[in-house]
Design a protein that fits this description.
337 residues, alpha+beta, 31% strand, binds calcium ion, three-stranded antiparallel beta sheet
Length: 337
């Protein structure tokens, strides 16, 4: 009785397995149909993230490296132009300025004035006086070839007629110092209109002294001006709107303009050199320290043997503990006697 029952159970069980087996084969292998488990999915995401992070890091490093190359080129270029301008002005200082008379030009006298350690980071400044630019030429009435020595107007005042070659003009205040052809110094007392043929833009300058030489028409008339080079700390409004706290190089003219000529400057130093030891300066050594705007991540500060202890320009030490690349420009310039 019991055995018959068992056989029946076995038959039923076999039928059930058969049915299940048939259903399975109709649906395909069960194991291939399974999705990812949550753990598998998370591992896959993690690996993807790690790969992307690696690619991104490589990209950023590459990008920074390119940027830093651009930076170095940019810093070199802009600071070199500014330094050339400075050197050129030192070379031309004293031109048209009468040292024997030593007149005050907007409060300064002497062709070159050095101020030691007055600027940010212990930097120096320099004030140069000279005829750096000709604003006009000597103007003459038609048929006259040279200025009449000691010429005076109807009221007995000495004068010079000029033809402007610049949009900046002489005045009777901060641009009243003139040099005719780099030879004769005079100061403008007042200005009136003039009528010179073939002269598009002319004025009559009443002078504080008579013209002492027969200058031919067309000779240059220079503005004698004081020009100061010095560093300034950016406050967000000056220095061509550079980032506050950075330092720029400015060229300030007593004639009425302050121009930022280089950004990201750290030091500016000058040294007087008396080569023949006669008590008079023969040369000025000018040195400018510029750095890149942004740091270079590939640069290791501690492995920069020279820079790691700070940069020494004429005994003034500028600490250098960051990853910015730097450039020093230095030159000895002969000055006029
Ligand atoms: Ca100094
Ligand atoms: Ca000397």
């Amino acid at each position: 009785m019991r055995n018959i029952h068992d056989d029946k159970d076995q038959r039923v069980e076999m039928e059930r397995k058969k049915t299940v087996e048939m259903k399975r084969s109709a649906l395909g292998p069960v194991i291939d149909r399974g999705g990812f488990s949550l753990v598998e999915l998370m591992i896959a995401i993690l690996i993807t993230v790690l790969i992307l992070a690696g690619v991104y890091t490589a990209f950023v490093v590459q990008q920074r490296s390119f940027t830093s190359q651009d930076q170095v080129a940019e810093t070199q270029g802009s600071s070199k132009i500014a330094f050339d301008m400075l050197v050129n002005d030192i070379r031309n200082s004293g031109y048209g300025y009468p040292d024997d008379e030593a007149p005050q030009i907007n409060g300064f006298s002497g062709a070159i004035t050095l101020d030691d350690g007055v600027g940010p980071n212990g930097s120096d400044s320099i004030t140069l006086i000279g005829g750096f630019r000709a604003l006009a030429t000597v103007g003459l009435p038609t048929g006259q070839e040279t200025v009449e020595v000691g010429q005076v107007d109807g009221t007995g005042a000495p004068y010079l007629d000029v033809c402007y070659t610049s949009s900046i003009k002489f005045n009777d205040s901060n641009r009243r110092y003139i040099s005719i052809d780099g030879v004769t110094y005079a100061e403008v007392v007042s200005i009136s209109s003039s009528s010179i043929a073939n002269c598009a833009d002319t004025e009559r300058l009443t002078l504080d002294r008579p013209v002492d030489k027969a200058f031919p028409g067309g000779r240059p008339v220079y503005l004698i001006e004081d020009v100061t080079y010095g560093l300034a700390v950016a406050d967000g409004t000056n220095c061509n709107n550079a980032e506050a706290g950075t330092i720029c190089l400015q060229r300030t003219s007593g004639g009425g303009s302050t121009v930022t000529i280089a950004s990201d400057i750290e030091d500016l130093q000058f040294e007087e050199i008396d080569q023949d030891a006669d008590g008079n300066t023969d040369r000025i050594r000018a040195s400018l320290l510029a750095r890149t705007k942004w740091e270079d991540p590939t640069l290791e500060p501690s492995t920069k043997p020279y820079y790691s202890t700070g940069i020494d320009l004429e005994g003034n030490i500028t600490p250098d503990t960051d990853r910015s690349r730097r450039r020093i420009w230095s030159m000895e310039v002969a000055v006029k006697n």
